[in-house]
Amino acid sequence: MALKITDDCINCDVCEPECPNEAISQGEEIYVIDPSLCTECVGHYHEPQCQQVCPVDCIILDDSRPETQEQLLQKYQGLVGHKA
């Protein structure tokens, strides 16, 4: 499932450059994650890089967008131009 950034975000700017899919951007008040681009770093890393660098642990799973590992891999492959 995609990740989301909670209101606890302090706009520290460390998560955005870590996202290999460029899914993170500055929103109106806090950073936001585009769920159509978020693969939880599947295809790139073993764990979400944004979660690893977040100093306030405000990046969580978005329960409203369930996806399996296979679906995340297919999304990754679509983003980088590979066929599943």
Automatic annotation (TrEMBL):
Domain 4Fe-4S ferredoxin-type, first and last residues per copy: 1-29, 31-64
Family annotation (PROSITE patterns): 4FE4S_FER_1, 4FE4S_FER_2
Gene Ontology molecular-function annotations: 4 iron, 4 sulfur cluster binding; metal ion binding
Domain of life: Bacteria
Keyword Repeat attached: yes
Name of a matching Pfam family: Fer4_7
A Gene Ontology term for the protein's cellular component: cytoplasm
UniProt keyword list: 4Fe-4S, Electron transport, Iron, Iron-sulfur, Metal-binding, Repeat, Transport
Protein name, UniProt field: 4Fe-4S binding protein
UniProt source species: Azomonas agilis
